[in-house]
């Protein structure tokens, strides 16, 4: 019946009368890890931020929605000139085809 806990059925902290009394003093305010516990000295902890663990977490989803949002906000700045340029190219192509056709040569005459 020796050992740390005895036959009380209590944990090793409460079976020892000194530890049981120490648990209720003002110096120790709770179990290990309790936020009310006195800060320990000389303990070094290491951790990794979520950005180091998963550097591309959510990147694809963010890229899709950011692209949509940025395009929606900028469409008038590049959409209108794009349409004007397309119409100008279409007109120029049709005009070139007409000028190089039989009717265009007959109308404007062939120089040379």
UniProtKB/TrEMBL annotation:
Entry-linked Gene3D superfamilies: Cytochrome b-c1 complex subunit 8
Keyword Lyase: no
Domain of life: Eukaryota
InterPro entries: Cyt_bc1_su8, Cyt_bc1_su8_sf
Record's subcellular location: Mitochondrion inner membrane
Membrane topology note: Single-pass membrane protein
Keyword Ribonucleoprotein attributed: no
Function: Component of the ubiquinol-cytochrome c oxidoreductase, a multisubunit transmembrane complex that is part of the mitochondrial electron transport chain which drives oxidative phosphorylation. The complex plays an important role in the uptake of multiple carbon sources present in different host niches.
Name of the molecule in the record: Cytochrome b-c1 complex subunit 8
Organism, as annotated: Zasmidium cellare
């Amino acid at each position: 019946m020796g050992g740390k806990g005895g036959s009380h059925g209590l944990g090793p902290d409460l079976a020892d009368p000194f530890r049981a009394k120490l648990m209720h003093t003002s110096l120790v305010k709770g179990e290990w890890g309790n936020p009310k516990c006195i800060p320990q000295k000389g303990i070094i902890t290491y951790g990794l931020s979520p950005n180091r663990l998963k550097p591309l977490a959510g990147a694809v989803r963010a890229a899709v929605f950011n692209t949509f949002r940025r395009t929606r906000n900028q469409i008038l700045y590049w959409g209108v000139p794009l349409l004007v340029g397309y119409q100008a190219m279409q007109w120029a192509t049709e005009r070139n085809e007409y000028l190089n056709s039989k009717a265009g040569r007959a109308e404007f005459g062939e120089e040379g």
